Every structure is written in structure tokens, then in C-alpha cells.
From TrEMBL:
InterPro entries: Kinase-like_dom_sf, Prot_kinase_dom. This is Protein kinase domain-containing protein. SMART domains: S_TKc. Gene3D superfamilies: Transferase(Phosphotransferase) domain 1.
Amino acid sequence: MASPWLYSPIASVQSPSPEVTKDDEDSMCSNALKDEFRHNTENRFIPLKKAGSGTYGVVWIALQAALTAQNPVPSANTLRAGICAVKVPVEDSDECTVASEVDVLKRVNAATSPTMSKHFPELLDWLLTLEPSENDNFNWFSMAAIIPSITLRDVSSSCDRSKEPMPETLVSHVAVQLSNAIGFLHEQSPPILHEDLHEGNVMLKVDMKSPFKMPTVVLIDFGLSGRCGGTSTLGDELMFYALLFALANTQQPCTHDGKLPPEPLALCHHDKNWIDFVMGLYWALELESLPLREFNNLYVPKAMERVNNADGRTLSNIEDLLRLIMERVPQITDEEILEAIAISESN
Ligand SMILES: Nc1ncnc2c1ncn2[C@@H]1O[C@H](COP(=O)(O)OP(=O)(O)OP(=O)(O)O)[C@@H](O)[C@H]1O
Ligand SMILES: [Mg+2]
């Protein structure tokens, strides 16, 4: 079979055809990618939407095909419960990253208590080809889908668009939950190092039922975990502080290089705890040192206090922000589910 990857947008741009519109190209490209995904997962999954892709992997929101094999096919609403997220390696990437991610998720899932497990993806199933050949290169794993699929990057982009700082209470909430999750990883023996902590690798599980509850912070993407082979937790700690520092400084001047001169920030905020928190991050990054244990002692109790004492107005601002982001994330409709099943049956 000709590789569907040949239908890359770049290839299409190089050989323009007057009859083919941009929408046609996108849809051809998307259909080809879906074919590739079905092939690589041996038709175990029916792709619905691409959730994201990076240097090493592509994540698809997909239906478990076995669920649709029943006669009669269950309703779209029932099938919704069988939606999961499936990660496959991008072509030419090192398949080992999928295997090592599965290993880490197995360790994390086995070790966590329910209060901790909510901060990590739940591994459902996987297939690893031990000796991949050109035609047999089946590596994938599935995990519980987080829908709507929102990352901290979506939140900071939304704040950037509306030229608003990220709510301090939300940043504090992320600091508390993420420091817990990272601390848990580092406590394992040997420690689990994430090694790729950034806004795109932190998801928010949003529950919009009333009354509003703060979202659950979920740390995803263990594809680079352990790549350096060491046990020093410093790299993760600095990435974590840089991530919080960037969130705390959304919409502040001079933040794009990741560093902000301390004085202007101190001048424009009056809450002492918040200034201490941001300055603590600043100096941790400057000095390249602040063990997570110390961060937990110095700042987490104050951040927790801020979250626990948040007033109704603060919470409703955060709720509005999350609603706005969710409206931008395309929902999976019943029609899309039924159409995806029909396409997969016709193949
Ligand atoms: N369990 C999940 N449920 C829903 N969406 C998910 C899930 N896991 C990942 N995603 C989405 O897929 C995107 C890519 O996932 P992930 O970071 O694991 O892949 P990646 O290929 O390593 O990407 P990158 O290199 O950009 O970090 C995430 O940013 C998120 O939007
Ligand atoms: Mg990622």
C-alpha cells in the first residue's frame, strides 16, 4: 500500500491542482492519516479526532472498534463511554519512546493511590512490536481520554488573547497539584523523571457540573521520561518552576525569554504571598536550585490557602475562563461518531 504519509500538506503545496481546494487537501490528508492510524492499530480503534502530535507521537481520540461489533450497534451515546486516547509513534521516530512510555505508565498506575492516580493518564491497553519490520510496525497504547482535551497551553493562550493575566488562584492550584504529582514521581525507587514538563504536557480535567470545582491537573506525556539515564531531579524541578513562572507572568512585560527583572513585578503586585511565590520561582531559576521538598514547605501551604479561601467572584472568573476555552475546543458529536463507524465499516 502506498504510504498515506505521502499526502503531506507540503507534498500537496508542491504540486498544486486547480481543482483541489485547501479544504479538500486537508480532508485528504486527514483521511490518509486516519487510514494510517487504523492500519497501525490493526483496526482495533476507529479514529475520531487527532488530539495532538509532537516530535515522537500522535494522539488520537478514538473509539474501541470491538464495541461497535455488537449487533445492533449501540447508540452513539453508549459508544461515547468507549472513547479513549491512543498514542502511536510518528513515522521515523524511535518506537522505543512508546515502549518506555508504557513502562512508566505501568509503574505510575501500579503505585498510585486513588488521590494520586487522578494526576496521571490511566493506561488501558497497549501493543509493542518487539522486532518491528517495515510492514509490521505496530506500536501503540491507549489511555482513558480526557475530554474536553484542554492543556495549560490552551489556558495561557486564551489569557494572552484576552490580554488578561492568568488568575493567581488557578496558578496556585496548578502549583499545588503539580508539585504533588511530580513529588510522587520523584519518590519512586528509582525516581521517575518526567523530563518534558511544559504547558502542553499538563492537562486540566474540567468538570463543569454545578457547583464549580477547580479542575484536576493531569500530567501527561512520559515519552521522554528517563531519556537522560540519570537520577537527578533537578532538571524536572527547574522545568516545573519555569512553567509556573511563565504562568504567573502571563501578560506581564518581558516574559518571553522566561525571565523577568524582579523589581517591576514586585511593584505591580501588592499581595505579599504572591510576590514571595513569584520571586521564589525567579531566584530558583536564577540560582538553578530549589529542591521540590523546599518548594513544598515554603510555598505550597500558602498556595493551598489561597485556593481554599478563594471567594465566589474568583471562582466564577476561573469558571468563565475555562468555559470560554471549552467553547473553542471542538466537541465530538454523535453524527461524527456514527460517520466514523460507517467509514471504518466501508474500508
Ligand atoms: N489522555 C488524553 N486524553 C485526551 N487528550 C490527550 C490525552 N493525552 C494527550 N492528549 C492530547 O494530545 C496532545 C499530545 O499528547 P502528548 O503530549 O502525549 O504527545 P506528544 O506527541 O508527545 O506531543 P508533544 O511532542 O507535542 O509533547 C496533548 O497535548 C493533549 O492535547
Ligand atoms: Mg507532549
